[in-house]
Write a structure and sequence with these properties.
Chain lengths: ~325, ~375
C-alpha cells in the first residue's frame, strides 16, 4: 500500500469480493454473523435466503452503506472500512427498493449517476443510449419515470448501476415483485452480463438463483449455511434421488421386490415413489414391465433448492 | 462538480412538480392578490380621523396639516378637546382620533438635532372594528413611527421628514407577504431533503463516490435558486399590486435573501430530525404558521402583547419585515436597518451551520 492510501490493501488476483468474519449487529439482533465469502472475478454469486436472513445487510456493508460491527471485506482488494470511497468508485449498486428520481426521464437519471461517477457528458450519453436500447427502453428515453411500470423502473434501476461500467455489480433482489414476463426479461439481461463483471445478487426466489448463479450461498439467520453450485448443493446436500412412476397393475409382488432393492418405496393410487442414494432407471422400469404393470410415465425427480434449504434449516424457504 | 449535478436534479424534481411549484410561488401570490384587492390603491376606503393638537407648536401643526393630511385614506378634522372627539368616535363619526400631546414639537425638534428622546403620540380608536383600527394604526405607525400611547425609540423616528406620504395598506403589508412566501421555504426545504432520505435516494447515492458535502451543496444551491426566484417574482408582484418602492431594491433583496437562507437552514434542521415526509411537513407548518403571524406577515405586530413580540423578535422574520419595510417604502439605507441586518446575517449563518452539521450526522445513521 502506498502512502496516499489509494492502493488496494490486499491483492488476490482470483477473488473480486472477500469477506472476513463480516458481522453486523442491530441491538440484540445479529443480522450478519461472521460470514466468510470468497467470490471469484467474473463470477455471478447468488445469496439465497428468506426475508430477514441478512442478505441485504451483507450487501449494504459491502457497498459501504453500513459499517460492519466487526470483521471486514475487500472489493478488488480495497477494504470497505478503510477505503470506502475507492470501493464506491468500482461498484455499481441496484438496491432492493427501486430508487429513481421520478420526475426525471431515464436519460437524466442515468446522466446523474454517470456524472457523479466522473464520466463526461458525452460518455454518459453514448452509454445511456446503448443501455436503453439493450434494456428495451429506447423509445421511452424522454418520458418522466413516474409514468413507467414496475418492470421498466426495475430495468432502469439496474441500468443506473451499470452506467459507469463497474467491475463489481450488486443486485439486491433485482426482480422483487415483478410479474413472470418482466422477471424473465431481467434474467435474460443479467445472463448477458455474466462473465463480463463480478455480480453479487441476492434473492429469495430459488428459481432465480438456480437459473442465474454460478455459485449459490444459502443464508439463514445471518449465516451462510451452504455454499456451492446449484448442482453441488442439490446432490451433495441431499445425497439421494427420487423416482416417480405412474403405472397400472402394480402388484404386491413387485412392490415387495422393489422394497428389497431400494431404501424407500411408497405406493398410492397407481403412483410409485422410490427414493435411494442410487437409482437404476432402466432396471426399475424393466422390473415393472416384467411384473405385468403398464408404465404410463416415469422420471427421476431432481431435488430443488427448496429441498436443500428444507434439509439444512428444517424450514421451507418460502414463508 | 457532483454537487452541481445533484442541484440540477433537485431543481428539476421541484419545477416539474406542479403542486410543489404552485405551493411555493402561487400560494403567496394569492395572498398578495387578496390583500391587494382588499386594501390596495384606489379601492381602499377612507377613514375619518380626528386630530387634537395640544402642543400648538409649528412642528405639531406641520405634522397634522402636512404629514397626516397627505395620507390619502385619512379624512382629517380638527378638534379642540377630547370631549367632542370622543363623542364623535362613539357615534361612529370618527374611526379614531389622534392627540398630539404637549411637548411633541420639542421632542421632534430634539430628535432632528440628534438628541436621545422619545416621541409620544396618543391615539384613541374603536376597538370593536379590528380591521379598520389595525389599518389606521399601521398607517399612523408608518407615518409617524409611533403608536397609540407607546413610546418610540429615537432611531426609528429619526427621519420623519423622509416618510413616504402615500403609504397605503398594501405598501405596508407587501414586505410581510413576501416574507410569508419565504417562510414557505421551511416546509419545502424539509420536504425536498426528507423525501430523498425516506425514499432511499440518499442511500442509493451514498453507494456512489458522492460525498456528504456534495449532497448538502446540491440541496442548498437548489433551494437558494428557488429562494432567489421567489424573491424576484414576489417583488415584481408586489410592485404590480401597487406597492410603492422608494428604497434600494438591492438592499431589500439582500434582506429577503437572508430571510430565505434562514428558512432553508430551519428546513434542514427539521429534515435532519425527521424520519419521514409525514413527520417533517406538519412539524414545519406548526412552526411556520405561528411564526408568520407573530412576525407580522399579515398584520402589524404592534397589535400583539409585548411578550409575543419578544418571541417573534428572537426569529429573523420580524426583523426582516421591519428592515425590508424600512428599505422599500421609506427609503431607509443600510444605516437605518443595521441592527436588523446584522441579526439576519447572524441567524442565517448560524442556522445554516447547525443545519449542515445535523443533516450530515443524520446521513451517517
Amino acid at each position: 500500500m502506498t502512502s496516499n492510501g489509494i492502493e488496494p490493501v490486499k491483492m488476490d488476483d482470483e477473488f473480486a469480493i472477500q469477506t472476513f468474519d463480516l458481522t453486523r449487529v442491530f441491538g440484540n439482533l445479529v443480522a450478519v454473523d461472521g460470514i466468510e465469502l470468497n467470490i471469484k472475478k467474473g463470477e455471478l454469486f447468488a445469496l439465497l435466503g428468506p426475508n430477514g436472513a441478512g442478505k441485504t445487510t451483507t450487501i449494504n456493508m459491502l457497498c459501504c452503506l453500513l459499517k460492519p460491527t466487526s470483521g471486514t471485506a475487500t472489493i478488488l482488494g480495497y477494504d470497505i472500512n478503510r477505503q470506502p470511497f475507492r470501493v464506491k468508485e468500482i461498484i455499481g449498486v441496484s438496491p432492493q427498493e427501486t430508487v429513481i428520481s421520478e420526475r426525471l426521464n431515464p436519460l437524466e437519471n442515468l446522466n446523474l449517476i454517470g456524472r457523479i461517477h466522473g464520466l463526461d457528458a458525452r460518455e454518459v450519453k453514448i452509454r445511456s443510449q446503448q443501455l436503453l436500447e439493450i434494456m428495451g427502453l429506447g423509445e421511452r428515453a424522454k418520458d418522466q419515470v413516474r409514468k413507467f411500470s414496475g418492470g421498466m423502473k426495475r430495468r432502469l434501476n439496474i441500468m443506473m448501476a451499470l452506467i459507469h461500467n463497474p467491475k463489481i455489480l450488486f443486485l439486491d433482489e433485482p426482480t422483487l415483485g415483478l410479474d413472470p414476463q418482466a422477471r424473465r426479461a431481467i434474467w435474460d439481461y443479467i445472463v448477458q452480463l455474466k462473465g463480463e463483471r463480478t455480480i453479487l445478487l441476492t434473492t429469495h426466489y430459488m428459481d432465480e438463483a438456480d437459473f442465474l448463479a454460478d455459485r449459490i450461498g444459502i443464508m439463514d439467520n445471518g449465516k451462510v449455511v451452504a455454499l456451492g453450485t446449484s448442482t453441488e448443493l442439490k446432490i451433495s446436500m441431499l445425497g439421494k434421488h427420487t423416482m416417480i412412476i405412474y403405472a397400472w397393475n402394480i402388484t404386491q409382488k413387485v412392490i415387495k421386490e422393489m422394497r428389497s432393492k431400494y431404501a424407500e418405496v411408497e405406493v398410492t393410487d397407481g403412483t410409485m415413489i422410490i427414493t435411494d442414494k442410487k437409482l437404476d432407471f432402466k432396471e426399475i422400469v424393466d422390473l415393472l414391465h416384467s411384473s405385468g404393470a403398464v408404465v404410463r410415465s416415469a422420471y427421476i425427480k431432481e431435488p430443488t433448492l427448496d429441498d436443500v434449504f428444507l434439509h439444512i434449516t428444517g424450514t421451507e424457504l418460502r414463508e | 462538480m457532483r454537487f452541481w449535478e445533484l442541484c440540477r436534479r433537485n431543481l428539476k424534481e421541484t419545477y416539474r412538480d406542479p403542486l410543489a411549484l404552485g405551493f411555493l410561488l402561487v400560494f403567496p401570490l394569492l395572498f398578495m392578490l387578496l390583500f391587494g384587492l382588499a386594501f390596495g390603491g384606489d379601492t381602499a376606503s377612507t377613514f375619518p380621523i380626528g386630530v387634537i393638537d395640544n402642543d400648538h407648536s409649528q412642528i405639531s401643526q406641520a405634522f397634522a396639516d402636512e404629514k397626516l393630511a397627505e395620507v390619502p385614506v385619512f379624512e382629517l378634522s380638527t378638534y379642540d378637546d377630547t370631549t367632542d372627539a370622543e363623542k364623535d368616535l362613539k357615534f361612529g363619526e370618527l374611526s379614531a382620533y389622534i392627540t398630539i400631546p404637549r411637548g411633541f414639537g420639542q421632542q421632534v425638534a430634539q430628535k432632528w438635532q440628534g438628541e436621545e428622546t422619545d416621541v409620544i403620540l396618543q391615539m384613541t380608536y374603536d376597538e370593536s372594528d379590528i380591521t379598520i383600527s389595525e389599518q389606521i394604526i399601521s398607517i399612523v405607525n408608518t407615518v409617524t413611527r409611533s403608536f397609540a400611547r407607546i413610546e418610540v425609540p429615537v432611531t426609528v423616528n429619526a427621519n420623519p421628514i423622509h416618510i413616504e406620504t402615500e403609504i397605503t395598506f398594501i405598501d405596508f403589508m407587501g414586505p410581510g407577504i413576501i416574507i410569508f412566501g419565504l417562510l414557505i421555504l421551511i416546509p419545502t426545504s424539509a420536504r425536498v431533503m426528507v423525501r430523498d432520505k425516506e425514499k432511499g435516494f440518499l442511500s442509493r447515492l451514498l453507494t456512489t463516490p458522492a460525498r456528504p458535502l456534495d449532497f448538502l451543496s446540491g440541496y442548498s444551491l437548489c433551494l437558494v435558486a428557488i429562494a432567489i426566484a421567489q424573491i424576484i417574482l414576489f417583488m415584481a408582484a408586489a410592485y404590480g399590486f401597487g406597492v410603492d418602492i422608494v428604497g434600494s431594491l438591492w438592499l431589500a433583496f439582500l434582506v429577503f435573501f437572508l430571510a430565505g437562507l434562514s428558512s432553508i437552514g430551519i428546513g434542514m434542521v427539521v429534515a435532519s430530525l425527521s424520519k419521514s415526509e409525514n413527520q417533517a411537513e406538519p412539524l414545519c407548518w406548526l412552526f411556520a404558521m405561528p411564526l408568520a403571524m407573530l412576525s407580522g406577515c399579515w398584520f402589524s405586530i404592534e397589535l400583539l402583547p409585548s411578550y409575543l413580540r419578544d418571541i417573534a423578535s428572537a426569529f429573523p422574520y420580524a426583523h426582516a419585515i421591519e428592515a425590508s419595510r424600512g428599505v422599500l417604502i421609506r427609503g431607509v439605507g443600510m444605516e437605518g436597518i443595521g441592527t436588523d441586518f446584522l441579526f439576519l446575517v447572524g441567524w442565517a449563518v448560524g442556522i445554516f451551520i447547525i443545519g449542515t452539521f445535523l443533516f450530515r450526522r443524520s446521513m451517517r445513521s
